[in-house]
Design a protein that fits this description.
With 448 residues, the protein is mostly helical. 57% of the residues lie in helices and 2% in strands. A two-stranded antiparallel ribbon has the order 1-2. β1 and β2 form a beta hairpin.
């Protein structure tokens, strides 16, 4: 792959428009960032669970704050690579005009990376998948193709993000978000369809999948335009766009470190335990002296979080720089964070182990996952059959609850299911719970 093709300002839905940046305030890729941050799907992330239940008296991260922090880290990763590359090679800006924009491209992709995730974190994805694989949705298997069925039994937030950004929703302007091709490609961690993904041992690019069947041609169009490599063993599978590695690294850095900080704020991990985990990541010989000068416990943890993230940014950007050619050749088959300094990697493995044991299995986390599972399943049980059949008076009343933007000219069973999933996956945690309670008769709408 070649940076000259990989970095493109061509916009989805506006391919024939001449690329002539007349905005003196923003580059084309900064415009991507602004379009995302002012959008409704992005704002809804503030009421979607990251790990812990949405905050009460103690603030913890939600999907929106997580995405903003990932975007900040992603921008740094991109800028560091550009600076290293420019220092190592002459005439970079002349040969690759958009290389200096890598930080902005990565930052925009980071901002959008979780926009397709449903309510209640990963349990929301699992609930949608389970409804079709083992729930009432199983009865629709004979009405869809095998490719479409794999979309349904393996619901993937990453693929849903691409759909949100490119799909023509009813009543909306054509072109979706009209993002640049490079930003769109940098979001797709697994450049294949569901039927070709979810495979172990077939390469990192096929670990999951990156687009639903309706977006297949759209993704291929982007991939071909950018000169992304095809998998030698499968004509419809591509190797990752190189910037995906930086987006992935930014996400890995943030959730590993920030989850520890949130666990401290919720008293799941003691300050002493947090210091034990994070001090080895700070790469600062004076860190103990600095900590000793700070009395406030939260400030001590914040310092460790900042220093740890800084270390990991430097490590991951160096791995990306050193392996640039293998990444461009499509032969680099690991995440950046898996290739950092062995000692630091050992520390990260310990953090992951503690996170699984103490954080992800904390009672409050498990409770929200179980409740979310029931809510998402319950919503699908009502909306999917009603929208597919739409024959009884009850069906019509249920369908009337679906906003018009999600009602396209659906003809096939798969298209109808996809529209329901567009609606349900867009819900915030609070809205999903409220609607579930109302349609199940647990509570009633206010008559005010």
């Amino acid at each position: 792959m070649d940076w000259k093709k990989l970095l493109s300002a061509k916009r989805w839905g506006y391919e024939h428009r001449e690329i002539k940046n007349q905005d003196i305030a923003r580059s084309e890729f900064q415009r991507d960032y602004d379009r995302l941050i002012f959008s409704s799907p992005f704002r809804r992330l503030q009421n979607k669970t990251q790990v812990f239940p949405l905050p009460g008296s103690v603030f913890v991260h939600n999907r929106l704050t997580h995405s903003l922090e990932v975007a900040s880290v992603g921008r740094s990763l991109g800028r560091i690579f550009y600076t290293k590359y420019k220092e190592a090679k002459e005439g970079v800006d002349e040969r690759y005009p958009y290389l200096q924009e890598i930080g902005n491209i990565v930052s925009s992709a980071c901002l959008a990376h979780d926009m397709g995730n449903p309510a209640f974190g990963h349990s929301g994805e699992s609930a949608i998948s389970h409804y079709f694989s083992n729930g009432e949705g199983l009865k629709f298997k004979s009405e869809v193709t095998e490719e479409e069925w794999q979309d349904l039994v393996h619901f993937e937030g990453n693929a849903n993000a691409l759909r949100i950004l490119t799909h023509q929703f009813s009543g909306k302007e054509g072109g979706g978000f009209a993002l640049t091709y490079s930003t769109l490609a940098a979001i797709v961690k697994y450049p294949c369809a569901a039927i070709d993904g979810n495979l172990k041992g077939q390469g990192l690019h096929r670990k999951k999948y990156g687009y639903f069947q309706p977006e297949k041609e759209s993704f291929i169009k982007v991939a071909e335009e950018l000169g992304m490599l095809k998998d030698a063993n499968h004509s419809d599978v591509y190797k990752r766009h190189p910037l995906v590695y930086l987006v992935e690294a930014a996400d890995d850095i943030c959730y590993n470190i920030i989850d520890v900080e949130d666990a401290h704020r919720l008293s799941i991990l003691s300050p002493e335990r947090v210091e034990e985990l994070l001090i080895p990541l700070t790469n600062d010989n004076n860190i103990l002296k600095r900590l000793a000068s700070i009395e406030d416990v939260d400030s001590r943890v914040s310092l460790l979080r900042a220093k740890s993230i800084s270390t990991l940014i430097q490590q991951c950007s160096q791995v990306f720089f050193e392996n640039e050619q293998a990444i461009l050749n499509g032969t680099f088959e690991a995440s950046l964070i898996d290739n950092i300094n062995p000692h630091l990697k050992e520390v990260m493995n310990k953090i992951e182990e503690i996170s699984v044991e103490k954080i992800y299995n904390a009672p409050t986390v498990v409770q929200i996952e179980v409740a979310g599972y029931k809510v998402m399943s319950g919503l699908l049980e009502e909306f999917v059959p009603a929208y597919i059949h739409n024959s009884s008076a009850y069906d019509k009343k249920v369908v009337a609850l679906i906003p018009s933007q999600y009602k396209n000219t659906d003809k096939t069973t798969y298209e109808k299911i996809r529209s329901v999933l567009d609606f349900v996956s867009s819900m915030t945690d609070l809205y999903a719970v409220e609607l579930f309670r109302k349609i199940k008769g647990i509570s009633f709408p206010s008559l005010d």
